[in-house]
């Protein structure tokens, strides 16, 4: 149930009736007619721009259209008032019965309230994390993992068929560095002094890899040259790193559906097939790029290269796919990988990248647009950095990792639920400060506590009601006399609940799961405000002594809040709590 969609349908019906009556021209395009919350809540519950967007094509003044539309809307029992404002905006106030009925709807639908079918079962691939398999996940990966996982859950809730995918970057030079680093730990396991020279990975996490290599190979690799052991140790170490990364993801509550390997693209003809597809479109050619202004990227050469004409699909410059020596650029396997996703039949692709991939966005979108014939949209979300603080100071690096703070460091300090919620308290492209002290304090300034506390408060009301012998199952509460919810503070909470289905659709269409976290904080604030008003006005308390019927109506409202908070936290991957400890 989406009240905003329902009221928009009413507006369209009234406009059709106006056209039938000759008050409007027939055949007007109403696709831009919207029903939204007004900018100022004092103006009403909802507002429509219908008169403003139809005035010019109708050849009429906006206020004239608005006044006729208002008269028709006012005849509907759901509309308490319809008032024309300014040049022709129309503000609507809904009857209390609408908000009271919404509470019953929430309780009747339960966790499915707000669930949408706007995705229409389309297949969407959400690729996220995709960390190099060279060590444990760090705090930057945490934010990308949470955003990607929450986005996948949000899209599922809104009707898409979602695949969570991890792209293993195991085809580049970094895995050779991993192999050399693991070899030094293998030497250490055999009683030799490791040579952790500059450029190798120094973290203690490779010590178990060295021990495992010794268990498998004994001392047989000690006297062999790199050419004899590099490939084998690379595969062995990469496998152990991916096991570690899977454990890191599990600690964060993330489970991938698919793991794809970059290395599997090489020598299989997949890269060649993708580029042949582009070549057949006239988008691959031999040429020399102009030297870039500013910092020179590593894939630029002052000589002829094989280039992708990405400017034909919105990029700023064409991009190299093969170097002059015949080797692939980093871009070539990424083109092939995305081509593979297109070929797998996805209707939409979403990539969650680190902020350092900003220069990659246009070229990747150009490649997908070309390979899919414009059929498959690609949305790339860039994740800005996370700054860690503790005791007023920057949080230091992890000895185990060697150079950074790991995912495990964060989760062990504050727990999975806090970590996930806090990572969604800013939009993905805004920097985020993660203060270990603040995220654990019990105050309104800590959003995860504030939302969890609201849910726990409702649970405490339900427990006290049970002790008083008041039935509080959802069916009984939905059937209560909800006309008793007539105070403005109670109706304000119901109005916030009504925003949930609309919020889901907006967040899903924009691929912005942080909107869910923001909404939950606002809903919790309304619940806490109502609770506090009850301290001043006894008639607003959820439990009315000696009046089970009124108590059930008020508890129904509180329980509805808990239902939506629980559903929202579920999308974010956070467990709602029943009591604060």
Automatic annotation (TrEMBL):
Keywords linked to the UniProt accession: Aminoacyl-tRNA synthetase, ATP-binding, Cytoplasm, Ligase, Nucleotide-binding, Protein biosynthesis
Pfam families: Arg_tRNA_synt_N, DALR_1, tRNA-synt_1d
Family under the similarity heading: Belongs to the class-I aminoacyl-tRNA synthetase family.
Subunit structure: Monomer.
Name of the molecule in the record: Arginine--tRNA ligase
UniProt cross-references to PROSITE patterns, sorted A to Z: AA_TRNA_LIGASE_I
Encoding gene, per UniProt annotation: argS
Domain DALR anticodon binding: 451-580
Taxonomic superkingdom: Bacteria
A GO molecular function held by the record: arginine-tRNA ligase activity
Swiss-Prot/TrEMBL catalytic activity: tRNA(Arg) + L-arginine + ATP = L-arginyl-tRNA(Arg) + AMP + diphosphate
Residue span, Arginyl tRNA synthetase N-terminal domain: 5-94
EC assignment: 6.1.1.19
Locus of motif 'HIGH' region: 131-141
Location relative to the cell: Cytoplasm
Chief subcellular location: cytoplasm
């Amino acid at each position: 149930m989406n009240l905003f969609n329902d009221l928009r349908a009413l507006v369209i019906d009234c406009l059709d009736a106006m056209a039938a009556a000759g008050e409007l021209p027939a055949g007007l395009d109403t696709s831009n007619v919207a029903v939204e919350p007004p900018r100022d809540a004092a103006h009403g519950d909802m507002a429509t721009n219908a008169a403003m967007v139809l005035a010019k094509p109708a050849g009429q003044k906006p206020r004239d259209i608005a006044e006729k539309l208002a008269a028709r809307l006012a005849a509907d029992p759901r509309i308490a008032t319809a008032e024309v404002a300014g040049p022709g905006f129309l503000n609507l106030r809904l009857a209390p019965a609408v908000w009271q009925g919404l509470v019953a709807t929430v309780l009747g639908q339960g966790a499915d309230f707000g669930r949408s079918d706007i995705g229409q079962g389309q297949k969407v691939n959400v690729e996220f994390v995709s960390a190099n398999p060279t060590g444990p996940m760090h705090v930057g990966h945490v934010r990308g993992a949470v955003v990607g996982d929450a986005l996948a859950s949000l899209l599922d809730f809104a009707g898409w068929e979602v695949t969570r995918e991890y792209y293993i970057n195991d085809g580049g030079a970094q895995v050779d560095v991993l192999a050399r680093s693991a070899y030094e730990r293998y030497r250490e396991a055999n009683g030799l002094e490791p040579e952790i020279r500059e450029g190798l990975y120094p973290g203690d996490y490779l010590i178990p890899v060295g021990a495992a290599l010794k268990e498998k190979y004994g001392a047989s690799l000690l006297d062999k040259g790199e050419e004899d052991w590099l490939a084998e140790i690379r595969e062995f170490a990469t496998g152990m790193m991916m096991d570690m990364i899977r454990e890191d993801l599990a600690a964060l509550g993330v489970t991938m559906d698919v793991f794809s390997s970059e290395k599997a693209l090489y020598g299989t003809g997949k890269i060649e097939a993708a580029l042949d597809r582009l070549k057949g479109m006239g988008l691959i050619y031999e040429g020399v790029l102009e030297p870039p202004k500013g910092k020179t990227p590593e894939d630029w050469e002052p000589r002829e290269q094989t280039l992708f004409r990405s400017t034909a699909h919105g990029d700023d410059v064409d991009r190299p796919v093969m170097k002059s020596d015949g080797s692939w650029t980093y871009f070539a396997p990424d083109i092939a990988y995305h081509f593979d996703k297109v070929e797998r039949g996805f209707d939409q692709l979403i990539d969650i990248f680190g902020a350092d991939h900003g220069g990659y966005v246009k070229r990747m979108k150009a490649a997908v647009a070309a390979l899919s014939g414009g059929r498959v949209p690609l949305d790339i979300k860039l994740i800005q950095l996370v700054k860690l603080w503790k005791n007023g100071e920057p949080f230091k690096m992890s000895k185990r990792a060697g150079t950074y703070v790991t995912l495990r460091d964060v989760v062990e300090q504050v727990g999975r639920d806090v970590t996930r919620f806090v990572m969604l308290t800013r939009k993905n492209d805004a920097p985020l400060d993660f203060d270990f002290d603040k995220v654990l304090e019990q105050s309104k300034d800590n959003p995860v506590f504030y939302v969890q506390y609201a849910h726990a408060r409702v649970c405490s009301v339900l427990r006290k009601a049970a002790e008083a012998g008041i039935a509080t199952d959802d069916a009984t509460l939905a059937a209560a006399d909800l006309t008793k919810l007539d105070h403005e503070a109670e109706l304000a909470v119901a109005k916030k609940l009504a925003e949930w289905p609309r919020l889901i659709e907006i967040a899903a269409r924009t691929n912005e799961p942080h909107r869910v976290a923001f909404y939950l904080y606002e809903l919790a604030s309304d619940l806490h405000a109502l609770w506090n008003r009850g301290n001043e006005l006894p008639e607003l308390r959820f439990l009315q002594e000696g009046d089970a019927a009124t108590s059930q109506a008020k508890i129904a409202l509180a329980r509805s809040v808990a239902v939506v908070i629980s559903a929202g936290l579920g999308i974010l991957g956070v467990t709602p709590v029943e009591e604060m400890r």
